[in-house]
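Note to self: keep these together.
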Amino acid sequence: MTQLGMEREVHVEDHSEGLETMKDALEFDPAKTAVLTVDMHRGHLDMNNATMPALPDEATRVLDGASDFLKFARDHGIKVYHAVLTMREKEIADSMNPRHAVGGVTFSANTIETEAQKEGILHNVEGSVQTEVMPELDVQPTDFMVTNKKTLSCFIGTELEWSLKRNGIDTLLIMGINTNTCCQNAAFDGFNFGYKVIMMSDCVSSMYGLDLHQFAMENVARCLGWVLTNDEVKEKVLDFEHRHHNI
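Structure:
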C-alpha cells in the first residue's frame, strides 16, 4: 500500500470477540427508537434518474433490505425519518464541497453512466425527480420527512435533532447512501448528541466502493455504536417486547 504516503501494509485487528460482547449487551426500547433513512432517493438509487448512482447490485440489495425492515419497524411502533439532500440550483455552483472549487474529482466506483448523467442533470435540485424517496421505502403519512439536508450531515441546519428529542427518541437505526459519508456522518452526529447508534448492514452501501463501505461499518462498530443485520435488530426488538410485556 503506497498511496498517500503509506508504505507498508496495515494489519487489520480482529475485534470480533469484543464486538460480540457489545452486541449481546445492547438493549433498546422500540418506542424510543427511530429508523433514519439517509439519502435513499432517486439521485442515488434509481439507475435511470441517478446523478450520483450507487453500484446497481448494491442499490438492489439496499432497497430490498430497507423494504423488508421498514415494514417490520412500522408494525412494531418504531418511528421512521427520511433525510433527503435538496439543493437550490443557484446554490450548487457554490457547492457544499470546497473540493469542487479546485476541480475536485468524485471517486465513484460506479462505471455505469445513467441517462440523467448523460443529460448533465445536476444532483438533487429542489423539485427534481432525483429528490424523491425511492418507492420501495413505501413512505407513509406517519413518517417524518427532513427535506432541507444541505451537507453530509442530516443534523446540521435541519429540524432532525429537535424532532427526535420531541418524540423521545434515544436510539437511531441508520440506513442509506453513502456508508462512508452521509451515513457515517449521521452516526458521528448521533453519537455526539448522545444517541445509541446502530448501522443497518443490510441497508447501507457506498458509491465510492466496497472498501470504504467496509471501512465505515468497521469504524461505527468499533468507535461509535453497533453494526447489525436486519435479523439481529428484529431479534433485539422481539426480545425487548417479550421481556417487557411479560413483566
